[in-house]
C-alpha cells in the first residue's frame, strides 16, 4: 500500500492566509446584528459530554456548533477554512497532520484554549478506561501531541488525505471542551457544557428549551449576529411545522418523511426550504456467505428488480433522490460510469429463473413506521421478480450488533455525508474490516481501496473511487436506494444558513433581514 | 373512619409491590440489550461482557430486581446512563407540568360534562338530550392526536390566538403559562367530558325517579334547587370513580399530548426513555406514575366514604 504513494508526490502544505473565516459570498452590509432566533429541533438533547452521550445527534449538533469551536470549518465549496487552527500541513505519507493554533482564544470559563487543552480532549476520548462510544470514530488516530503551546500534531494509523476536512464540524470528537470545566463539574458537566464557541449556554430546561447567548469575547464576534439562540425540542412533525407557520419558531429541522410539509413550504412565499444534497446514501448489505446471496445471479436480480422512482413516490412523495453509487451528487467523486446495474424487471426474473431454486430470505428492518414502510415497499418490488423477502422487525439498537456478528441475510445501513469517502468506503468494503458487512473479500477491490486512500491527486482518486463503484455494482454485494438529502425550513427572513454538511444545522452565523 | 383508612393503606402495599415487579419485568424483557445500546458501534463481544459486568446485567433477574427495589426503598431510583440525571431529579423537573396539564384537563372536562349532564337529565329524552348523547358518543371516538392537530390548525395557524407548541413555567409568567396550556388541556378535556357526561346523566335520571325527589317536588321546591342540591350529590358517586380512573387515562393521554404540544412533562420523559432505552428512567418513572395512580384512587375511595355514610360505616 505504500507503493501507492507516487514518487513525485511531495508533502502537501496547505497554508491558508488571514485570520478571518471566509464566509459565504453575501455582501457585507446585508447582515444585521441583534435580535434572536428560535429553532425547532426534533429531539431532546441528552447532553454534551462525549463520555456520557457517545454520539451527537442532529439536535445536539445544532447546539454544539454554537457552543463549541472546531479546528477547521468547511466553506461553501467544501474546502476546509481556519477556525481554531490557522494553518495546517501534512507529512508526505499523509499520516501526520500538524495544525498551528489561533492564539489568544479563551473558553467561556476564562481558561485558555491551547494545544494542551486540545490534547486533553482527545486523550479523554481515546483512553480505554473511559470506554467512550466516541472512541470508535477516532480509531484511525494513534495519538495527538502538543509539542508547543500553539501546535497540535495528529498521528494517524492509516493515511488520510483530507484530514482537515474531517475535523470541521462540532461532533462528539471534534468539538473542543474546556478541560477545567469537565474536571470541576464531574457528573454535572454533561448538561453544563463549556466551549470556546460564539454562544454561551445560558439556561437549559430539560425537554423544553435551551437558551444560548452571544459570547462577547468571541474571536470572530463581528460575524455573529443574533444576541440569543433558543433551541426547542418539538418532537411531533405536524405541530413543529405549525409552529413555524404561526411564527413561534424561525427555523425547523425536517426530513423527507414529512414530504407534505416540505412541499407545502416550497409553495409558501413566507418560508424558505433549505436543502443540502449531501454525499452518501441509504444502503443495504447482502451477506454473501449465506444462501441465497452467495450466488451472483440472485444479488444482481435483487438490484435489478428495484424501482427507485416508484419507491420514492411511495415513501416520500417523490422527494428522495435515487442513488446509483455510494457517493452521491454531494460528493466530489463524480463518475461518468459508476457501473450501476439497470433497473430491469424482466432481466431480474430471468436471473431468478436461471438460479432455479426458490429465493427466500429475511431482511432486518427497524421497528419504526419509516422502517416498516420502506421494508414493505421493497418486499412488493421483489415479489414481482419472484423473490420472497420476509421482514424481520428489530429495534434500532439491535442492528449494529447483528451486523457486526453477521447475523443477517440483508441489513439496512447508511453511508453518511462526510468530506472524504475513504473512511466509510474502506471500512465497508476492505477485507477484514468489522463493518465489511457483505463478508466479501476481493484482492483487486482491496488494492483499489488502499490506493485511493493514499493518492493525493483528486482527479486520480475520483478515477479510483469510480472503479471501486463499478466493481461493487457489478458484484452487487451492497446496493444503494436513495442519496442523503438534508432539510431545514425557515422563515424567509432568515439568512446566512451555511450548507448542512453532515446534516448539521448551524445557525450560529445567521441573521434576520 | 380511622380503621377504614388503615385497612385501605394496607391494601396499597401489595399493589405497589406488584406495580414495581411488573415495571421491572417489562423493562427487563424488552428485546435488545442495554449494553449494546450504550456501546453502539463499539459493541465488541469483550466490551459488551465488561459493561454487562459493570452494570450487574450478568446477575440473575431476581437479584437485579431486589437490588433495584432495595435502592428504591432507600429513595435511590438510579441515574440515567445518558444524561447523568437521577430519576428523582428528572421527575421533579417534569412532574409539575404534567400535574398542571391533568388538573386543567380534568377541570375542563368537568366544566363541560357536568352542566350538560344535568341539563340532559332534567329533560331526558328531549331533542337536546338526544343531540348531546349522540355528540358525546361521537367525541368518544375522536383520538386525541386528531383533535390536537385540528385545534392547532384553527387556533394557532389560522387564527393565531394561541401558540402551537411550547411552555413557560407558571412561576415565571402565569398568564403565558395558561396560554400555552389551553390547547393541550382542551385536547385532553375533549376526550374526557363525554364519559363524565354520560355517567352522570344516567345516574341523575335514576336519582330523579326516587321517591324523595317526588317529595321535594311536592313540597314545591324550585327545580334548580332539586337538581343541584338534592339530586347531584347522591348521583355523583360513579362520577367520582370515573374521575379517579380517568387519571390513568389522562396519564396515557399526556404522553401523546405532551409530544404534540412539546410540553416538558412526564409523558415526554417516558417517551424519550423508551426511544433511547433508558431503562433506569423508564422503570423509575413508571413506578412513580403507578404509585401516583394507586394513591389517587385511594383518595377516591376515601371520598366515597365522605359522600356515602354507608361505606364509611362498613355496611356497603
Structure description:
The complex is a heterodimer of chains A (513) and B (316). Chain A is of the alpha+beta class. Chain A is 28% helix and 23% strand. Chain A contains 15 helices and 19 strands. Chain A has helices at 50-53, 58-67, 115-126, 163-166, 179-185, 237-245, 259-266, 296-304, 308-316, 345-355, 369-383, 399-404, 422-429, 443-454, 458-475; strands at residues 13-14, 36-41, 72-74, 80-82, 85-90, 96-101, 141-148, 151-156, 199-205, 209-214, 228-233, 251-254, 271-286, 359-366, 387-394, 410-415, 478-491, 494-495, 511-512. The termini of chain A are far apart. By secondary structure, chain B is an all-alpha fold. Chain B is 78% helix and 0% strand. Chain B contains 14 helices and no strands. Chain B has helices at 2-29, 34-39, 45-55, 61-73, 87-122, 127-140, 144-158, 174-207, 211-218, 223-235, 237-260, 266-275, 279-307, 309-312. In chain B, helix 5 (87-122) runs parallel beside helix 13 (279-307), helix 7 crosses helix 11 and helix 11 packs across helix 12. Chain B starts with a helix and ends with a helix. The mean pLDDT of chain B is 86. The interface between A and B is large, with 47 and 50 residues.
Topology:
The complex is a heterodimer of chains A (513) and B (316).
Chain A (H helix, E strand, L loop, with lengths): L12 E2 L21 E6 L8 H4 L4 H10 L4 E3 L5 E3 L2 E6 L5 E6 L13 H12 L14 E8 L2 E6 L6 H4 L12 H7 L13 E7 L3 E6 L13 E6 L3 H9 L5 E4 L4 H8 L4 E16 L9 H9 L3 H9 L28 H11 L3 E8 L2 H15 L3 E8 L4 H6 L5 E6 L6 H8 L13 H12 L3 H18 L2 E14 L2 E2 L15 E2 L1
Parallel strand pairs in A: 2-11, 2-12, 14-15
Antiparallel strand pairs in A: 1-5, 3-4, 5-6, 6-8, 7-8, 9-10, 10-11, 12-17, 13-16, 13-17, 18-19
Helix pairs in contact in A: 8-10, 13-14, 14-15
Chain B lengths: L1 H28 L4 H6 L5 H11 L5 H13 L13 H36 L4 H14 L3 H15 L15 H34 L3 H8 L4 H13 L1 H24 L5 H10 L3 H29 L1 H4 L4
Helix pairs in contact in B: 1-13, 5-6, 5-8, 5-11, 5-13, 6-8, 7-8, 7-11, 8-10, 8-11, 11-12, 11-13, 12-13
Amino acid at each position: 500500500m505504500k507503493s501507492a504513494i507516487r514518487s513525485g508526490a511531495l508533502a502537501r502544505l496547505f497554508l491558508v492566509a488571514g485570520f478571518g473565516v471566509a464566509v459565504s459570498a453575501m455582501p457585507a452590509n446585508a447582515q444585521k446584528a441583534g435580535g434572536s432566533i428560535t429553532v425547532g429541533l426534533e429531539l431532546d438533547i441528552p447532553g454534551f459530554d462525549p463520555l456520557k452521550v457517545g454520539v451527537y445527534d442532529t439536535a445536539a449538533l445544532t447546539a454544539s456548533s454554537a457552543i463549541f469551536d472546531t479546528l477547521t470549518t468547511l466553506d461553501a465549496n467544501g474546502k476546509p477554512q481556519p477556525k481554531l487552527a490557522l494553518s495546517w500541513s501534512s507529512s508526505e505519507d499523509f499520516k501526520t497532520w500538524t495544525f498551528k493554533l489561533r492564539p489568544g482564544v479563551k473558553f467561556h470559563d476564562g481558561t485558555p484554549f491551547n494545544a494542551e487543552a486540545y490534547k486533553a480532549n482527545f486523550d479523554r476520548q481515546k483512553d480505554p478506561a473511559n470506554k467512550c462510544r466516541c472512541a470508535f470514530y477516532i480509531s484511525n488516530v494513534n495519538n495527538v501531541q502538543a509539542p508547543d503551546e500553539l501546535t497540535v500534531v495528529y498521528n494517524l494509523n492509516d493515511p488520510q488525505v483530507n484530514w482537515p476536512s474531517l475535523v470541521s464540524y462540532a461532533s462528539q470528537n471534534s468539538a473542543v471542551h474546556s478541560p477545567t470545566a469537565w474536571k470541576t463539574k464531574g457528573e454535572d458537566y454533561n448538561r453544563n457544557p463549556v466551549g470556546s464557541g460564539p454562544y454561551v449556554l445560558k439556561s437549559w430546561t430539560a425537554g423544553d428549551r435551551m437558551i444560548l447567548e452571544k459570547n462577547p469575547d468571541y474571536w470572530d464576534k463581528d460575524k455573529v449576529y443574533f444576541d440569543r439562540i433558543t433551541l426547542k425540542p418539538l418532537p411531533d412533525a405536524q405541530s413543529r411545522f405549525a409552529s413555524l407557520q404561526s411564527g413561534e419558531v424561525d427555523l425547523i429541522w425536517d426530513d423527507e418523511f414529512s414530504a407534505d410539509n416540505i412541499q407545502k413550504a416550497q409553495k409558501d412565499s413566507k418560508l424558505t426550504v433549505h436543502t443540502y444534497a449531501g454525499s452518501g446514501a441509504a444502503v443495504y448489505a447482502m451477506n454473501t456467505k449465506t444462501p441465497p446471496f452467495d450466488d451472483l445471479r440472485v444479488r444482481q436480480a435483487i438490484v435489478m428488480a428495484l424501482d427507485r422512482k416508484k419507491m420514492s413516490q411511495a415513501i416520500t412523495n417523490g422527494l428522495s433522490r435515487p442513488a446509483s453509487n455510494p457517493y452521491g451528487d454531494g460528493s466530489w467523486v463524480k463518475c461518468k460510469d459508476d457501473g450501476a446495474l439497470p433497473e430491469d424487471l424482466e432481466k431480474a426474473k430471468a436471473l431468478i429463473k436461471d438460479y432455479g431454486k426458490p429465493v427466500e430470505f429475511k431482511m432486518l428492518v427497524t421497528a419504526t413506521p419509516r422502517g416498516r414502510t420502506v421494508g414493505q415497499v421493497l418486499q412488493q418490488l421483489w415479489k414481482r421478480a419472484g423473490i420472497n423477502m420476509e421482514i424481520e422487525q428489530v429495534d434500532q439498537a439491535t442492528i449494529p450488533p447483528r451486523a457486526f456478528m453477521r447475523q443477517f441475510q440483508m441489513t439496512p445501513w447508511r453511508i453518511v455525508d462526510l468530506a472524504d469517502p475513504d473512511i466509510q468506503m474502506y471500512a465497508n468494503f476492505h477485507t477484514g474490516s468489522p463493518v465489511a458487512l457483505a463478508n466479501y473479500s476481493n484482492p483487486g477491490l482491496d488494492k483499489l481501496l488502499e490506493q485511493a486512500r493514499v493518492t493525493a491527486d483528486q482527479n486520480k482518486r475520483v478515477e479510483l473511487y469510480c472503479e471501486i463503484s463499478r466493481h461493487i455494482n457489478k458484484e452487487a454485494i451492497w446496493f444503494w436506494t436513495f442519496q442523503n438529502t438534508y432539510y431545514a425550513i425557515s422563515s424567509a427572513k432568515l439568512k446566512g444558513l451555511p450548507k448542512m454538511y453532515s446534516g448539521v444545522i448551524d445557525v450560529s452565523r445567521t441573521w434576520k433581514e | 373512619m380511622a380503621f377504614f383508612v388503615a385497612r385501605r393503606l394496607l391494601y396499597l402495599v401489595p399493589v405497589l409491590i406488584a406495580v414495581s415487579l411488573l415495571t421491572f419485568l417489562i423493562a427487563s424483557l424488552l428485546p435488545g440489550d442495554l449494553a449494546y445500546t450504550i456501546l453502539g458501534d463499539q459493541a465488541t463481544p469483550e466490551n459488551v461482557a465488561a459493561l454487562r459486568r459493570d452494570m450487574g446485567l450478568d446477575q440473575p433477574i431476581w437479584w437485579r430486581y431486589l437490588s433495584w427495589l432495595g435502592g428504591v426503598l432507600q429513595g435511590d431510583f438510579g441515574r440515567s446512563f445518558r444524561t447523568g440525571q437521577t430519576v428523582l431529579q428528572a421527575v421533579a423537573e417534569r412532574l409539575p407540568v404534567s400535574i398542571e396539564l391533568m388538573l386543567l384537563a380534568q377541570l375542563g372536562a368537568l366544566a363541560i360534562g357536568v352542566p350538560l349532564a344535568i341539563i340532559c337529565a332534567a329533560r331526558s329524552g328531549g331533542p337536546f338530550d338526544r343531540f348531546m348523547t349522540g355528540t358525546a358518543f361521537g367525541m368518544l371516538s375522536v383520538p386525541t392526536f386528531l383533535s390536537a392537530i385540528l385545534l392547532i390548525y384553527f387556533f394557532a395557524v389560522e387564527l393565531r390566538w394561541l401558540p402551537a407548541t411550547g411552555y413557560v413555567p407558571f412561576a415565571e409568567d402565569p398568564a403565558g403559562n395558561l396560554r400555552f396550556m389551553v390547547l393541550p388541556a382542551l385536547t385532553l378535556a375533549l376526550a374526557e367530558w363525554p364519559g363524565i357526561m354520560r355517567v352522570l346523566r344516567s345516574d341523575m335520571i335514576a336519582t330523579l325517579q326516587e321517591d324523595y325527589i317526588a317529595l321535594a317536588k311536592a313540597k314545591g321546591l324550585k327545580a334548580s334547587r332539586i337538581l343541584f342540591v338534592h339530586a347531584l350529590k347522591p348521583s355523583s358517586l360513579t362520577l367520582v370513580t370515573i374521575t379517579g380512573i380517568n387519571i390513568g387515562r389522562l396519564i396515557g393521554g399526556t404522553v401523546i399530548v405532551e409530544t404534540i404540544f412539546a410540553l416538558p412533562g412526564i409523558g415526554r420523559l417516558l417517551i424519550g426513555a423508551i426511544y433511547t432505552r433508558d431503562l433506569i428512567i423508564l422503570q423509575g418513572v413508571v413506578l412513580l406514575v403507578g404509585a401516583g395512580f394507586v394513591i389517587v384512587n385511594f383518595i377516591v375511595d376515601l371520598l366515597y366514604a365522605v359522600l356515602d355514610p354507608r361505606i364509611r360505616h362498613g355496611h356497603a
